[in-house]
Automatic annotation (TrEMBL), chains A, B:
CDD domains: HisRS-like_core (cd00773). The gene is hisS. It catalyses: tRNA(His) + L-histidine + ATP = L-histidyl-tRNA(His) + AMP + diphosphate + H(+). NCBIfam families: hisS. Homodimer. Keywords: Aminoacyl-tRNA synthetase, ATP-binding, Cytoplasm, Ligase, Nucleotide-binding, Protein biosynthesis. The keyword Nucleotide-binding applies. It comes from the Bacteria. One of its GO terms (molecular function) is histidine-tRNA ligase activity. Residues 418-447 are annotated as: Disordered. This is Histidine--tRNA ligase. The keyword Cytoplasm applies. SUPFAM superfamilies: Class II aaRS ABD-related, Class II aaRS and biotin synthetases.
Length: 458, 458
């Protein structure tokens, strides 16, 4: 077998990169759990018809068939299966399927791989990990969850700062503000306006104005007003006043706009208190997906805005419905692979070592291996990660074995004396060269050496 | 959308089942890391030609295509892709692809989902989680790893006993013993003999004897000798003596047999010391796969032998080869989904609650929600998982909200006095009804209530 080459769009990390990814996942999970979100996992596959309900992403779906499936056989009862392209569609199905066993409002996090058959680019993969939180209600869901959920993400992403992850900025908008304003202006094709505004960062305001005229039926003055709204941003409640002033000036005030402004104002005010500087109201945030009905969120890594959003989501009034009950929700999703790939490729963070092992127990002779095994077991029983040397090579070679893996300590088992009484063990810090007597029943490495850590690089 | 129904073979757990699964995974991961195994993940897909190298499983592979793939377009450069059906094939590819960046012997664990398009049965799924450990060498790999790896699994599975998981028995054999004995008898189609012996538990000794005569070219006497060997089992080195005696009697002693017996004896002796009662030499263990060349392992959950093996593996001399270097290895794989599904379906273990939340902070009025949020933040900052009540309902309803989720504590924020000074908070253990004054800056629940635990049921 020749040396295989990587598959574009299917990222894999070397062990030290995986330490970073695992650390990020551990921090996210812990934060979500501290906020009372229950972890679930859903299967990787969904019936194809469910995956295609939102037409937009249909081209990206991977469809499965069994290799030796009889093409003439009746299709499986469940129909054709595809790999999920996000965690929202499967979660909606899970909620409907298990509604009788869940307590609402249901808070869940879900950290899994998803697949999209897109053209791979920097930060855009065909297989990647998402970390989602959602709260879903049965029938109704109070607005305060739209304030809470981005603050949970602020907490989670903020907790990564200790690892050397740059700060984030969560940009928020409210669909009611946008829709209320557009309708107040007299523009009723709200989706067309949102699609145009969504392109602002890519094509610039002039091109968007042209688009709004061409595709949303706007006059040049209406298009200009939409662009004025999109230019409003700020991290305190003054943004609300500025939008009101704008709406008054254009005669675009509506009840829906006012409802949206009260919500956006509450979010910005709470955020200024609980996560100062992290949340910014940004009225140009549109989010392509048409199922959002209230708050929408995007998140940039400060200094890495080119990467695009690393955490997005919003409020949707109909996550799912079984006819009798409708389930509204609000949620955000972190693009973990996108974030981790940038952390690694830009050299922002590094793992202190690529193996869990803190101590390599040296082997003096193959006959004495069981004594090294016993030392390792004693250390492990007290929570110290240990491995035993692969062979009774010269100590210099055993130390190099540890050094190549970043293992900080090498343990030397003392020679038994002539009466068979155990000798004095020694442990060597191979970074400093310091070697001291040690007892496996009591010795512990310093806290910062016990497990691999992730730290800011450079 | 009508209520969806589960897909046969694609297990999913309710939140309390997921607590159990996550706990099992956490214990396995911690044990593997304490033994110095580095965690890696590989992509879910491999080129189809790689998946089909071991012909036996080819019928089980799920093949991928993009929904809107142009059937006339040139195939993707990487060729057709399929979902991996185990973690060994991807690991072999990962080792070859990254050999220049890995330090050998390379110890890795890998916990991921795999997919097989098989007919679903009890304990046999189409999507399931495996937890694998392997040590792989470059060029050579000493025998002592064949002793170490099943003992790591004994440690990992033993650590689950605290959760209420029944004890396990790891059955070991050595291919060299089997092959050496068969060849000593004059049977050269070793694979055919192994295939026959592998069916022993299913069809019984008479049918296997017939098979050996019909398919392995054995005389009835040779077949009887093979069955005599397969009947040998025991947990100390006396099994070695019994096999030697058997070989002498049948004139079947060979160098290969003796080499295998020395290895098997070393394994049984070490296991008797380090994991008493867990490992049993069982000479009928054949393992279907023809790439094993030394030790082979299977594991049964005591009292649940009908479930089949929950942890299998062995030594293989050629995990992978790039022409210049061959990579021998030894590894075992736990069928986590098989194990967890039995734990849940047989009611062997249960989670103490289905949500991480230890404390529900009650809300007195929506205007006062920010005070409840502040209490929650103070508790979380000290590592207590908390959520805030969804609405300012009557306290009785808020307590029921906690009770339905198994949240043990409800926190009541004290009313501020007329001067705005904060009132005295109270925390109620809703199981006992006991309510005491508490300060969010200092109060902590008892250790056993802090996080959900997994305990023996009943």
């Amino acid at each position: 077998m020749a040396r295989p080459t990587p598959l574009s769009g299917f990222p894999e990390w070397l062990p030290d990169g995986r330490v970073v990814e695992q650390h990020v996942l551990d921090v996210l999970r812990r934060t979500f759990e501290l906020h009372g979100f229950a972890g679930i996992e859903t299967r990787a596959v969904e019936p194809l018809d469910q995956l295609l309900r939102k037409g937009e992403t249909s081209k990206e779906v991977y469809v499965l068939r069994r290799l030796h499936e009889d093409p003439d056989a009746a299709p499986e009862r469940s129909g054709q299966l595809g790999l999920h392209f996000d965690l929202t569609v499967p979660f909606a199905r899970y909620v409907l399927e298990n509604a009788g066993h869940l307590a609402f409002p249901f808070r869940r996090y879900q950290i899994q791989k998803v697949w999209r058959g897109e053209r791979p680019q920097d930060g855009r993969f065909r297989e990647f990990v998402q970390a989602d939180i959602d709260v879903v209600g049965a029938g109704a869901l109070p607005y305060h969850y739209e304030v809470e959920l981005p603050l949970v993400m602020a907490d989670a992403l903020g907790a990564l700062a200790d690892l050397g992850v740059p700060p984030v900025r969560i940009l928020v908008n409210n669909r009611k503000v946008a829709e209320g304003f557009y309708r107040g202006l007299g523009l009723d094709d709200v989706e067309a306006v949102l699609r145009g505004i969504d392109k602002l960062d890519k094509v610039g305001p002039e091109a968007v104005a042209d688009l709004l005229v061409a595709e949303a039926g706007a006059t040049p003055a209406q298009a200009a007003a939409c662009l004025e709204l999109a230019a409003v941003h700020g991290s305190d409640a003054s943004v609300v006043d500025r939008v009101r002033e704008l709406a008054d000036r254009h005669g675009a005030s509506t009840e829906l706009l006012e409802e949206g402004l009260l919500e956006l104002g509450a979010l910005v005010t709470a955020a200024a208190e609980r996560a100062p500087g992290v949340l910014v109201a940004d009225l140009k945030i549109a989010r392509g997906l048409d199922y959002y009905t209230g708050s929408v969120y995007e998140t940039v890594l400060v200094g890495h805005e080119d990467l695009g959003s690393i955490c997005s989501g919003g409020r949707y009034d109909t996550l799912a419905s079984d006819g009798a009950t409708t389930y509204p929700g609000v949620g955000l999703s972190i693009g973990v692979s996108r974030l981790v790939s940038r952390l690694l490729s830009a050299g922002l963070v590094r793992a202190t070592r690529s193996v869990p092992t803190a101590v390599l127990v040296a082997v003096t002779s193959e006959e004495g291996r069981s004594r090294s095994d016993a030392v390792a077991a004693a250390l492990r029983a007290r929570g110290v990660p240990v491995e035993v040397a692969p062979s009774a090579a010269k100590f210099g070679k055993q130390i190099r074995h540890a050094d190549r893996r970043g293992i900080p300590y090498v343990w030397f088992v003392g020679d038994a004396d002539q009466d068979g009484a155990p000798g004095q063990d020694q442990v060597k810090d191979i970074r400093s060269g310091e070697q001291v007597p040690a007892d496996p029943a009591t010795w512990t490495p310093p806290e910062q050496d016990l497990w691999p850590r992730v730290v800011a690089a450079g």
